[in-house]
Amino acid sequence: MESVKIANGKTPVLQLKEVSVSYSPGSFAVNKVSTNIYPNTITAIMGPSGCGKSTLLRAINRMHDLYPHIKTTGEIILKGKNVLAMDPMEVRRMAGMVFQQPNPFPTMSIYDNVLAGYKLNGIRLKKRERDEIVEQSLQSVGLWDEVKDVMTKRGSFLSGGQQQRLCIARALALNPEVLLMDEPTSALDPISTNKIEELLLQLKKDFTIIIVTHNMSQAARISDNSMFMYLGELVEHGNTTQMFTKPQNKRTEEYLTGVFG
């Protein structure tokens, strides 16, 4: 695979090459999307409902495999490996997913929720290793001090914002190459949303983050780069500040100024 670099010498963590996703023959939810995602950045995917944002995100970690009628074509290159040719479980270790609604496993304790990925992958750890991973993961999302004395309680015991941070800790526990987030704050109150946004700005020092959002203000606040999608196509991808102040495409400008949405 040829190495693609930018001016500062960084190689993409993720390359999308002519990626298409269809739910039925000839009908594309995502149509020939090609772009690069670089390390230690937050990339926001924006666009009106039904434009393919979440569909593209889910293609990256092979979630569509759960539905036989959905077909994904093209190449998704993650750290030099073609995601579509890999074992799905390996892909999901490399590309952690956080969803719109906080979804801690309801029958598991806070402690076991963090380690759920290891259990699902059949990875055995010593007690000391488990303890270290749990503490480090919860520390990384600012939740350790809030839950360290109630680790045996179920994840559903926590508030909505805490549950979402627990889900992020669960994704981070496997040390993924990219963190995929599908509207992670849309179900949260403004205070919890602010905490998640501050958390993401800290996490990008160690992780590459892709976030689907309807909230253009959120994209402007926290993302380095933005992608604008419309009717399954990638219309524009570039520096967020530049896109918001001087979009290159008329459709991007119309979306950002509220002509449609």
TrEMBL record:
It comes from the Bacteria. The keyword Nucleotide-binding applies. Its EC number is 3.6.3.27. GO terms for cellular component: membrane. One of its GO terms (biological process) is phosphate ion transmembrane transport. GO terms for molecular function: ATP binding; ATP hydrolysis activity; phosphate transmembrane transporter activity. SMART domains: AAA. It is an enzyme of class 3 (hydrolase). The keyword Transport applies. Residues 14-256 form the ABC transporter domain. Pfam families: ABC_tran. Keywords: ATP-binding, Hydrolase, Nucleotide-binding, Phosphate transport, Transport. PROSITE patterns: ABC_TRANSPORTER_1, ABC_TRANSPORTER_2. InterPro entries: AAA+_ATPase (IPR003593), ABC_transporter-like_ATP-bd (IPR003439), ABC_transporter-like_CS (IPR017871), P-loop_NTPase (IPR027417), PstB-like (IPR005670). This is Phosphate import ATP-binding protein PstB. It comes from Proteiniphilum saccharofermentans.
